[in-house]
Amino acid sequence: MPPQMKLTAITLDCADPEVMAAFYREATGFELHPKSDADFAGVTRADGLVIGFQRVDGYRAPRWPGQAVPQQSHLDFTVEDLDEAESLLLELGATKPEHQPGGDRWRVLTDPAGHPFCLTRT
Question: What confidence tens digit (pLDDT) does each residue in 60-92 have?
């Protein structure tokens, strides 16, 4: 029988953990992790899940959809209104790549460090 594992954290590489934590705090409403600093920062959901951001010297942002610098991973978030969520996230510092494979079903944005993430309807 496989071990019963509980996901407690997802950590992304970046150049500036504090900028990333601020972006995701505003985007998700999660609380800033109390031990956040310039080398590692994170946001914590009420059930304890942490999205963390660790400083990497010489960090190179993913280049989505190309694979010259692959995305390595991405996060998916559900939202009630795609247009409203997209608008807010763009104001917070996300960008919207030209390539949008989801049509009306989902949107791909990139966070301030270049990581792609998807928005889908609830």
Answer: 888 878 878 776 777 889 999 999 999 999 999
Q: Torsions phi, psi of 56, nearest 5?
A: -130, 120
Question: What does the alpha-carbon distance between residue 86 and residue 88 come to, in Å, rounded to a whole number?
Answer: 6
Specify the amino acid at residue 59.
Answer: Y
Determine contact, residues 9/49, Cβ cutoff 8 Å. Answer: yes
**CB contact at 8 A, 38 and 23:** no
Decide the pairing of beta strands 116-121 and 106-110: antiparallel
List, in order, residues 6 or more apart from 100 with CB less than 8 Å away: 107, 108
- pTM of the predicted structure, to 2 decimals: 0.82
